[in-house]
UniProtKB/TrEMBL annotation:
Source superkingdom: Eukaryota
Protein name, UniProt field: Angiopoietin-related protein 3-like
A Pfam entry, by short name: Fibrinogen_C
GO biological process: cholesterol homeostasis; phospholipid catabolic process; phospholipid homeostasis; triglyceride homeostasis
InterPro entries: Fibrinogen-like_C (IPR036056), Fibrinogen_a/b/g_C_1 (IPR014716), Fibrinogen_a/b/g_C_dom (IPR002181), Fibrinogen_C-term_domain (IPR050373)
Species: Parambassis ranga (Indian glassy fish)
Signal sequence extent: 1-19
PROSITE patterns found in the cross-reference section: FIBRINOGEN_C_2
Amino acid sequence: MRVTIVSLVFVLAVSYVPALCDNDEPSVVHLEAPAETRSHFAALDDVRLLANGLLQLGQSLREFVQKTKGQINDIVQKLNIFDRSFYQLSVLASEIKEEEEELKKTTVVLKANNEEIKGLSVEISSKMESILQEKSRLQNKVEGLEEKLSSLSQGVMRGKQVAELSALREVIHNQEQSITELLNAVREQSDQLNHQRTKIKLLEEKLTANTLAQETIDRMPDTFNSGAPTLSLYVSSDSPNMMNLPSDCSELFDRGERVSAVYTIKPNGSQPFMAFCDMSRDYGATVIQRRRDGSVNFDQTWEQYENGFGDFTGEFWLGLRKIHSLSFKGNSVLHMQLEDWKQDKHFIEYRFYLDGPESNYTIHLTHLSGNVPDPMSNHTGIMFSTKDRDNNNHQDSNCARHQTGGWWFNACGDTNLNGKYFHVRPKGRSERRRGIQWKSGRRASYSLRFTQISVHPVASLTSASSESGLFR
């Protein structure tokens, strides 16, 4: 519309020009014309000046309109991005709410089962008391019969008395068998009760974690700037179901458990704590570290590495205190699983034990087997280091700060499974040294795609042939 008005004004201005300039008659000066007679048309220069001004004004308006359109497009794009982000957060919140409802329903069912098991336990206890009383009466009868048998053995024993004694012995033998079977049934019921209570505890913890996650979504925090989540330190040992806990995952495997999941264990001399058990091989192994997608930042402080951090369902570090409680006896095997970006899978095993906090968790290793070179034998006697506690053998450099992550650094070597997770191989050598690496021989260091470190007793050690290819 604005361009049309400018064009119309220009046409009108041009239409006045012939009236002023295209007259073929010679101009005659009439001296007798009155002085006050004036032309009704504007001068040609004024018209041109007016036309140029209007053209410039139209051009400026066009530029202003184009600039405004660009700004409006930017605002619309930003609003679309915000809508998509808000929609994704809404979907995530809805999924968490659904999982929370399912966990609540499961918890109600398990609590009902727990009450039923408690009633059965009380009933079995009362039956046990009656059986024990019956056993006491039978023992008294047996003592009386033995005295009677002793007195009869001095004389001639009648056939009827012998038959009576044989029948009584048979009854006593049957009663003892019944008592033994009931005792076994009571033990099985007790084990099932402990297993149910452990599952209820796990579900309660998951429900609490989902509730916290829902609150976090509602507040919409900046999750990318948050640190690694801390693993739960220890489980309360006041409840009665903590009396029959396994010492590690291998004991759970011996009890018949075959599902790889999170369980409560209680190593000798330690408080109970949660741990992920790998049951995928012919024994149970307690997982102390896993890296697979870079979802957890392993560049943490000494306190975090001592207590543990991460998520059992993804990446995590169990904690130096718990690893020490699993291995301080010296009869443990450290099993390391490695996979590079070409999907080549390897493993290596060490006989090892870990000192306590007074020695900064000094590691002791003896190579056992594996299908990769061994760069860790020279780490025996090395203390653990983090970016805020430097215990390495390099006096002039803090290896944990330069290479990131906590590890047993021996003068900033090229082995560090807690380094930075790279999805693309870095080009520079100094940057590669900061990644998850296991330098093998003279080859250049490279960043690994997957690692898992687990612990199991020496008695569970299997051959190298059965280990290759079994990772997750």
